[in-house]
Amino acid sequence: MSSEKDNTSTLKAAVGVLGLSTVALLGATIGLAVKSNSAAPAAAPAPADDAMSAVAVPSVSEATDFIALRDGSTFLDDTDNVCAGAQLAVANKLCADLEVPTPQAGGNVTKGYVGDLDVGDLVPITTSYQASNMCPVNVHWHLGTEHYSYGQFDENGDGPHGTAPRPEWADRDLAGKDVRGGFRCHHYDAEDEKFTKPYEWKYCTNMEVGETYEVHWPHSSAGDCGTVNQFQTPFYDGVFCNLPLEVFQTIAKDPQNIASNVGVHGQVFTVVNDEAYFYPDMMRGMIVDKSKNMGTDIHYYTGSTTGTSRDNEMCSQYAPITWQVDRQCHMISASSFDKLCYDMKLQRDDMTDDLYPHGSRELVMDSLVANNAADGPGRNLRA
């Protein structure tokens, strides 16, 4: 045992000496290299005509123009749009000539309001559209509001061009040459820069800081949900995409089938030039945020499509459809709308005709508004 111990000691000593020798050798090598480098002349600069100098190096700061890439994309070829032309033509009709009056929109959505048109057992969807297997098929907006919510968007609101008055039956003035404007919110303050400072719009057109807009998101269970064809302009193409005329005629015999499969989200905004109000995804539907009281105070009812081709004499026959309208008005940044328009320009279908505000239908009179308003599931206001 003692002999093995002596051998072990000798081996350890040898390893130690070898380690010290290695460290010393490494140090000497490094010293020589430093000395050699310091004594060598500076390297001559590469000639100007060096092959590498001819290679152009793109700046990493250059942003990709995704809009420009759209036209050459095989994924966004509009000839593959299966929803194009799917709209079922249903003409407007004089309200007085309708054998069975169809409920109209937009109406009064003030809390507690109920229309006068008896629609029997017809009810709106009071749960999420997603729960009814529906998806958004379009997004567009109107100058001012088509709906009326007292204290939120009404004749007492304001904007860069005032608001719509409310005479004997809420007749609306023209806001601009061709676009009828609706009611405005109460946020506007001409002394506050965020309501008056111009914004450089890149994608939306005919928009203005300080103005009120009512955004609509049509939803349908017959849309081409979850595909590149989901969003369509006009929105009717999206609503009827997978609904042949003969099928529509069959299910339309029971109006509840329509109201249970087609609906619209409505939400009202005043545009501000303030990035504290930026929201990045207005494409997918109503903004719901309980902490900010957004999308939580909802008026549910059945109505129709809207727009300036309809009024209290000429009715839409695209009815009855469910409406879910946020009673509150919210501020949102101009950049949020511009981001929305950017997203719209990247869809397969050409949504150019929805990149600007549409005119607002005049407020629908009580006799044409359904009496089935609700504040939520199981809370019908006519009871």
Structure explained in plain terms:
The chain is of the alpha+beta class and 383 residues long. It contains 6 helices and 10 strands; from the N terminus they run ααββββββαααββββα. It has helices at 2-39, 66-70, 235-239, 245-251, 255-259, 334-345; strands at residues 93-94, 135-136, 140-143, 153-154, 184-185, 212-220, 262-272, 298-303, 314-315, 321-333. Strands 2, 3, 6, 7, 8 and 10 form a 6-stranded mixed β-sheet that branches. Strands 1-9 form a two-stranded antiparallel sheet. Strands 4-5 form a two-stranded antiparallel ribbon.
Helix content: 10-25%
DSSP summary, beta strand count: 10
State the end-to-end distance. 104 Å
Strand content: 5-15%
What is the ordering of alpha helices and beta strands? HHEEEEEEHHHEEEEH
Uncertain runs? 1-61, 169-177
Alpha carbon gyration radius: 33 Å
Output the keywords.
single chain, 383 residues, alpha+beta, six-stranded mixed sheet, two-stranded antiparallel ribbon, 6 helices, 10 strands, disordered N terminus
How would you sum up this structure in a few lines?
Helix content is 19%, strand content 14%. It has 383 residues and is α+β, with helices and mostly antiparallel strands. The termini are far apart.
Furnish the topology, listing elements before pairings.
Elements: H1 2-39, H2 66-70, E1 93-94, E2 135-136, E3 140-143, E4 153-154, E5 184-185, E6 212-220, H3 235-239, H4 245-251, H5 255-259, E7 262-272, E8 298-303, E9 314-315, E10 321-333, H6 334-345
Parallel strand pairs: 7-10
Antiparallel strand pairs: 1-9, 2-6, 3-6, 4-5, 6-7, 8-10
